Amino acid sequence: MKKIKFFIVFAMMSTFALQAQTFKVGATIGLPAADAADISTLVVGLDAYYYFTDIDDTVEIGATAGFRNFFGDEIEVLGQTVEFDDAQFVPLAAAARLKLFGIVSGGADIGYALGITDGLDGGFYFRPVVGIDIADTIELNASYENISDAANWGNINVGVLFEF
């Protein structure tokens, strides 16, 4: 019985391996928005995408994981300077893209962002994104990203992804 279960699992994994798949890795840089604009100055991020569909398909479905760092700001409050620490998140999400004309794509990442800085719990993660493919190996994209923790950690960003 164990051999049959092993064979079934092996066959399923082999089937997934034979399907067309795409792996992308990249970085983003952005300006804080929503509540984050009051206490941070800049946002940088790293992203990794794994699409279960081929890069040339009209609809791409996959998963993504990343890292976001909101750099803390110094602000004046009643004559005192208050310094805010960096806020860091790890977004984990499903990703979907609709590709038009083989070059332009649009879609969204929806999931949960884990707060990894002390005092941040994490929350619902939503990122609508538009992109342009260059030579089938580079994607330039722009997006608005929001993480709903106790505050709304939003940012407007641009990024680049490299396909492997």
From TrEMBL:
Keyword annotations of the record: Signal
Signal peptide: 1-20
Name of the featured protein: Outer membrane protein beta-barrel domain-containing protein
Organism: Winogradskyella aquimaris
